[in-house]
Design goal:
The complex is a heterodimer.
Chain A: E1 3-6, E2 11-14, E3 19-26, E4 32-38, E5 45-51, E6 56-59, E7 62-67, E8 72-77, E9 86-93, E10 100-102, E11 106-111
Parallel strand pairs in A: 2-11
Antiparallel strand pairs in A: 1-3, 3-8, 4-5, 4-9, 6-7, 7-8, 9-10, 9-11
Chain B: E1 5-7, E2 10-13, E3 19-24, E4 31-37, E5 43-50, E6 53-56, E7 65-68, E8 75-79, E9 88-95, E10 105-106, E11 110-114
Parallel strand pairs in B: 2-11
Antiparallel strand pairs in B: 1-3, 3-8, 4-5, 4-9, 5-6, 7-8, 9-10, 9-11
The chains are: A mainly beta, B mainly beta.
Chain lengths: 112, 115
Amino acid sequence: SQKIEQNSEALNIQEGKTATLTCNYTNYSPAYLQWYRQDPGRGPVFLLLIRENEKEKRKERLKVTFDTTLKQSLFHITASQPADSATYLCALDRNAGNMLTFGGGTRLMVKP
Amino acid sequence: NAGVMQNPRHLVRRRGQEARLRCSPMKGHSHVYWYRQLPEEGLKFMVYLQKENIIDESGMPKERFSAEFPKEGPSILRIQQVVRGDSAAYFCASSPSGTGGYEQYFGPGTRLTVT
């Protein structure tokens, strides 16, 4: 069956370091992969989208890679700040439509 | 430019009652998605609607749950005869297109508590 896995354990890092979050999937051939941020009690907020024919995408301090051979995406936050503390969700499209299947999310804690 | 609006933000229902959750998409968006997030779990797709049409309801329980997106007015997710297991946060999202490659804009969610 189709599966999306994110590290369910919280990631604790020091301010200023680079945070790297992982999203692995099986039995999928997604055309797009998206990353969202979710703060407690709020709805997810879109961060980045990467297409299957793109290796890497950047936006300010954020970088996403997409390896369709490894079936993995990495999400990096450089020069992390306490304000980056949140849960980060990866999502894959279903059947190349816009319906999304989400991973369980990884909670990031950036300590000052 | 108002974002996706959901109401109520919090809803308490007793077992057996009906719950109605409303979602107004972003201006110009005609594609609406509903997701459910159980405590300590991820977001699960429930249903995808366009104006007056249900496009995909594969994630929605077959019984007691229904959704609509009428020509005028908000999208509504209806849960009949609620049970404790329905307690969750329900999020609505909208996008300008139903094809892949578009981000979704989420509302703040409705937190349903069944007592």
